[in-house]
Amino acid sequence: MRVIFVLCAHLLIWFSAFGQDLESVKSMVSDLTDSTMAGRGYVQSGGDVASTYIAAKFDSLSVETIQGKRFQPFSFNVNTFPTSITCITQTDTLVQGRDFIVQAGSGTTKGYYRAVNLDSTHFQMALDTVLGGRDVAVIKMEGINSADEVAHLFDFQNHQLHIRPVVLVQPGKTTWSVSPRTSQYATVEIDGRSLTDTIADILIDVVSEEITYEARNVLGKIAGESSDSCFVFTAHYDHLGMMGDAIFPGASDNASGVATMLDLSGYYAKNKPCYDIYFIAFAGEEAGLVGSKYFVDHPLIELSQVSFLINVDLMGSAAKGITLVNGKLYPDRMKRLAEINEEIEGVPRIKLRGKAANSDHYWFSERGVPSVFIYTEGNAKAYHDVNDTPDGLDWANYDGMFTLITEFINTWPSCQN
pTM here? Predict the structure, then answer.
């Protein structure tokens, strides 16, 4: 009931305040990172609450459905951690998400273990003759840098996880992810700065549950003057969800992109475009671009009619400018973008990259749809951790970036005929 109440309250505020302005964007990011969204993941219905929220935004703007559909459902396997996780050494009780994580593919693990501390020169398969049934390898990650060392560690870890858990002591922050698979035991990553002593004994209590998750992409359309062609804006709304009691809010990644996409939908609802514009909020990006792959395999628009697709992700600070993945594939279009940026003094720098399968533009690009992935470069530093909160975003140059994107679409050559 509290989830419904909070969601309705947020929507009422948004209905009365929405406009193409930064304060509305900030409000949406605050809503999307609220604890009721549970990190927009796979436990406590976080993804469902987020998709309902986005659909209500589209409805409030009279953004049309696509072929009568507001949602495109699909499913995939994902490993989850629905209950509290414990990691205690002989001197420290570690805090979930802050002091330690369990790797996303970790399996259920419960018990006390004796630590066998290793460094970059001492982990190897032969240690099976040293490690007993209640022993666990505690590997100091500092100094494990070369490709050979990383590959050796990967092989060692995979071998050990059939027998016992593995503990990795990182020299700095830990970074979480999503996995569709589950190993037999857990890998615990500890931020070494949280330890007061070398680990001698460790208690690990992890419950994992591999589930089939019912997800849904959220769909919208704004009709243009012509349907001969179209543009597409995309952003993934899912994030990492929860690891035990730890919530990963995902303000930068990617509440910021969803809010930007919704801001664009609000703009075009009031400023009719020359061609139809589609808006797609994807689920399952963090699990391996699953939602966008499903859409491309089951398209609800004619992909051959897409003039250009812009995917927005990590949009919270353009203090240093923006980067366009795939930008090098379209030199003429990027030249025009640079000219517009100079005219409007939009962002300090536009950096172009080549192809990369690092967000939801990828599968469209592989099907021949001209596509770029825009992300900002600036002062938003938190990534895939519990510190990715709204107060970490400064929204530098947001107005300039927004105008750059809309002018790029509004002045499309065929729109001028």
Answer: 0.93
Q: At what angle do helices 256-270 and 22-32 cross, to 10 degrees?
A: 140
231 in the same domain as 323: yes
Q: Which of 174, 206, 238 is the last residue of a domain?
A: 206
Instruction: Look at the block and give the residue holding tokens 């409000």.
Output: 27
Amino acid identity of 1? M
Whether residue 72 sits in one domain with residue 163: no
Q: Tell whether the model's pLDDT for residue 322 goes beyond 70.
A: yes
**What is the per-residue pLDDT for 14?**
40
Residue 310 has pLDDT above 50, yes or no: yes
- 264-279: pLDDT as tens digits: 999 999 999 999 999 9
DSSP 3-40: HHHHHHHHHHHHHHH-SSSHHHHHHHHHHHTSGGGGGG
Q: Are residues 173 and 308 in the same domain?
A: no
Same domain for 235 and 173?
Answer: no
Percent over 90 (pLDDT), the chain: 85
289: left (phi over 0), alpha (psi -120 to 50) or beta: left
Distance of alpha carbon 253 from alpha carbon 313, whole angstroms: 7
Whether 237 and 283 map to the same domain: the answer is: yes
Q: Give the other-Cβ count within 10 Å of 157's Cβ.
A: 17
What does the pLDDT read at residue 124? 57
User: What's residue 260's pLDDT?
Assistant: 98
Position 285 scores a pLDDT of 98
Q: What is the pLDDT of residue 151?
A: 87
Interatomic CA distance for residues 145 and 62, integer angstroms: 53
Give the strand pairing for 187-191 and 241-243.
unpaired
Dist CA 409 CA 193 (whole Å) = 48
Domain identity same for 177 and 218 = no
Residues in the chain, overall count: 417
Rg over alpha carbons for the chain, rounded to the nearest Å, is 23
The answer to whether residues 198 and 218 belong to one domain is no
Residue 165, domain extent: 84-206
pLDDT at 105: 97
